[in-house]
Amino acid sequence: MSDPSLFQPEWTISTPTFSSDELHPLMRVYPWVGHRGFGYDLVRFMRPSRLVELGVHWGTSYFAFLQAMHDAKIEGECVGVDTWRGDGHTGPYGEDVYKNVTDTVAKFFGTERARLLRMTFDEALAHVDDASAELIHIDGFHTYDAVAHDFETWLPKLAENGVMLFHDTADDTGYGSAKFWGELSKKHPSFAFTHSWGLGVLFPKGDALYRRLIAQNIGDKARVYEFRARHELASIERDDNKRMAVERLEAIENQSRMIGERDGLIKSLQRDVAEARSSAEARAGEQRDTRAMIEKLSRELKSASELAVERLGAINHQSEMIARRDAEIQVFRARETELTERARALAQEGEARKAAEGELRRRVDEIHRALTSLATMRAEHEAVRAQLAEAQREREAILGEVRLLAMAAKDQGEENQRLRARGAELEQHAAELASTLRHREAELQSERSEHERIRGVSAALTRDLEASRAELAAREREHRDRLKVIELLRRTIEEKNAMIEELRTLTGKLNTDIELLELRTERLEQIIQMAAKDRGGPWARALAALRGHDAENGLATAVKASAESHRKA
Q1: CB 54 within 8 A of CB 77
Q2: Could you tell me which residues come within 8 angstroms of residue 561 by beta carbon, excluding any fewer than 6 positions away?
Q3: What sign has the CA pseudo-torsion 20, 23, 25, 26?
Q4: If we measure between CA atoms, which residue out of 61, 53, 63, 55 comes closest to residue 23?
Q5: DSSP state letter for 81
Q6: Among 452, 453, 456, 399, CA closest to 424
Q7: Cα 44 to Cα 68, 80, 201, 203, 208, distances in angstroms
Q8: Alpha-carbon distance 265 to 277, whole Å?
Q9: pLDDT-above-70 percentage for the chain
Q10: Does residue 437 form part of some domain?
Q11: pTM here?
């Protein structure tokens, strides 16, 4: 897209509805979600004919770009590249991730805009023409070398005045992508967001769009996007906590209500039994009416049983709700696993940094040893200079002696010749000493330069060591924060499991009470029927005992009556 006039005239901050959330409610808390508003408005502003995303995964950013193209009726192509097998940061994931992406595309966006390439980033290069993509989003493996490679290999595919987006550029992520972004953003026009793991916006092939955005106060708009993202995340966390508390309270209330209904049902059945006893006593002589009352009581008992079945269905429905909640807990557990893996990666990076600190300490020790050696060489140099000074003094004394001898004994040619030879030897020795001194001074100067260089390197290494320690401390703080989140999730899961066990216990008790009530009702019907047939006999006495609220004596009498009936038979 080489013509900046193709951009729409004014940037608009939208409040879009993302259709993909219908199939993936948890997408509202994924790492890229804080940038969906900006990505949506960027696509509407640029109206690209081709957009490429490197690293689709669950599709949070990819669906946001497609949503913008769909809503703005942009006749462009949105290319998504991923192996859908995972990497060292995300960990491996199954075929269901790819299926979720394809199902979402098919349901909401169709294939006329979306093109998914299931392959590596390098393999996908052959499927995209050079200078054809107005917008490229890089969100793959987050090491320094991997991001640098993706940028260098895909830069030729970017159109003139195009835009490149980089995820995970915030310094506190600890990824190599953050370091690469820090270097790259100094070479090209750019701006960045720090929330939601960071998002860098780069203009490496012309600043036409960058200047238009600056003219429209993109800095102020960026703060609006960041504030809105942080507010939405806080609202989601607050709503989740509130929803979990409400669901727990509702579960407790439902259990209490079902227990109350069960107790009421038992009391109602007890009243019905008492009324049946009174009716049987008042109409003992009216067998037909007694049978009618028994039939009525049987119908009422049947209705009560049906009501108990309905209550059991309500309990089963509650169990299904708990099962759905268990599924959500499984998702939280998956998130916990991801956070644990990320914490493990941070711990490994901390070990690597500790090893680097050890290497830095070793190099500092070498520098100290070099400084000690330099001090020794300086002492040797001073000793040589002292020897040279002594030799020069000796030479001056000998030359003076030669001059005196020459003046005193001009006729002693042979002696003078010897003295001249001696003087020449001394001069040669002095020259050699002077040459040695100059060589030593040159070596000392070289050693001073090397010492200064070593001091500079030592200072740089010391600064790097301090920066590494500060970064490691920040990582440890982040690791502790994430462990707190993991611990909170574990406590939530334990509370849910306790609720499930409590509900299962109550359900078992209710089933036992219902079975016991059915057995007692069946036994009562038998007593009433036998009493109607055996007036004045054991069954009648058992019924009288029951009417007198002497259940134990009544049941014992009924047992004897039953035994007597068997003997008569």
Answers
A1: no
A2: 530, 534, 537, 538, 539, 541, 542
A3: negative
A4: 63
A5: E
A6: 399
A7: 6, 18, 16, 18, 17
A8: 18
A9: 56
A10: yes
A11: 0.45
**Which among 287, 300, 295, 298 is positioned nearest to 533, based on CA atoms?**
287
Quickly state the pLDDT bin for 419 (edges 50, 70, 90).
low
CA 111 from chain centre, in angstroms, equals 31
Token reading at 372? 């000690």
Confidence tier at 113 by pLDDT (50, 70, 90): confident
What domain range includes position 464?
350-482
312-344 pLDDT per residue, tens: 666 566 666 666 666 666 666 666 666 666 656
Whether residue 190 sits in one domain with residue 42: yes
Give the integer Cα–Cα distance in Å for 202 and 204: 6
Contact predicate 68/272, CB 8 Å: no
> Which tens digit of pLDDT belongs to each residue from 480-493?
877 787 787 788 77
Region 457-485: mean pLDDT is 76
> Does pLDDT of 450 surpass 80?
no
At 369, is the pLDDT very low, low, confident or very high (cuts 50, 70, 90)?
A: low
End-to-end CA distance of the chain: 104
Lowest mean pLDDT among 232-236, 255-259, 364-368: 364-368
The CATH number of the domain holding residue 115 is 3.40.50.150
| pLDDT exceeds 80 at position 409 | no
Residue type, 414: E
Overall domain count for the chain: 2
Residue located via tokens 């900006």: 38
pLDDT at 407 over 50: yes
Contact between 77 and 106 (Cβ < 8 Å): no
51: which strand partners?
78, 135
Quote the CA–CA distance of 569 and 566 in Å, as a whole number: 5
Cα–Cα dist 342/335, whole Å: 10
The pair of three-digit structure tokens given for residue 200, joined into one six-digit string? 């860098």
For residue 175, tell me if it sits in a domain: yes
Distance CA 60, CA 140 (A): 14
